[in-house]
Amino acid sequence: MLTAILALSIPGTASAIQSENGYRDCGYQIAALKTRYLYGLAMTPPGGTTTNHFSSQWATKTRNGSYRGNWVASADYLDFGYTGSFCRDYG
Amino acid sequence: MTTADRHPGLLLVAAAVLVVAAGGCRDDAVSTSSTAEDQLTAREWGEGLKLCLERAGVTVIEEGAGSFSYDPGPGMSRQAMGEIEAECRQDLGPLPAPPTDAATARKYYVAYVETAECLEKLGYAVTQPPSVEVFTDQFAEGTGGFWDPFEGVYEQFPSVEAQTEAEQQCMVEIEQ
User: Fold this and answer.
1) Angle at alpha carbon of residue B59, lines to B55 and B64, rounded to 5°
2) Three-state secondary structure of chain A
3) Residues in A touching B56 (Cβ below 8 Å)
4) Size of interface A-B (CB pairs under 8 A)
5) For B148, which of A54, A60, A90 is closest by C-beta distance?
């Protein structure tokens, strides 16, 4: 089983959005996690509750939330390189 | 001890196949690349997992198109749910490999182009789709790294409400 890990890191007040090797840094506190996955997906925001999902075809899942810290996602098949996660600040 | 007691997974798999067959959902176009007769399709594998989780008391929320979410049932810890899921997975056997065939790729492509057109009508700038040939090649890699009409669009949503509206209006269910 292929398992991939995606972390969304929100360090301090940096403003740039960077994506490298599955890690994306968001420069603000409010963020959401979006990922494309196949089969089992677990999404855990920093200090939050893990949610579990299953899809029998490639699907995207977005989880909104106001969190500061590292998001972690794992799935049987997870793509974070092409569509990736995203960062957002609604102010 | 009955056969069912000794091999609950076998019954789950059989039940999954029956459920799928009864619904007329089996579609070779979305099957995996495996051609073995006894290899479950992705849809069947998912149905088997869902049945197994439900039978063990896990709360399952159906989301359509072969997708569902699940949470610990009443009084159940997340650790306990994890152990249940692990047992269910073991009973069901290996996951089917991701689909890589051109027919399935085309279904995704058609749905995604429709989604992109919808997003444009709502005023969002979308990345232009690659040719169907390029998309098919991307899809065939089996890693999920193919064009996504929502790429770059999420950053444009002015609010969560706008995001939800766009998702509801523009996400097209991919035929299985």
Assistant:
1) 100
2) CCCEEEEEECCCCCCCCEEECCEEECCCCEEEEEEEEEEEEEEECCCCCCEEEEEEEEEEEEEEEECCCCEEEEEEEEECCCCCCCCCCCC
3) none
4) 102
5) A60
In this prediction, the answer to ipTM > 0.85 reads no
Same domain, B124 and B49: no
Count of domains observed in chain B: 2
Check whether residue B74 and residue B118 sit in a common domain. Answer: no
Four-point Cα dihedral B67, B31, A42, A10, nearest 10: -100
Domain ranges of chain A: 4-79
Residues B129 and B84 in one domain: no
pLDDT digits (tens, 9 = 90+) for B126-142: 999 999 999 999 999 98
For B36-73, how does the pLDDT look when each residue is reduced to its tens digit (9 = 90+)? 456 789 999 999 999 999 999 999 999 888 899 999 99
Q: Is the full-model pTM beyond 0.90?
A: no
B97 inside domain = no
Same-domain pairing of B81 and B39: yes
Question: Same domain, yes or no, for B8 and B55?
Answer: yes
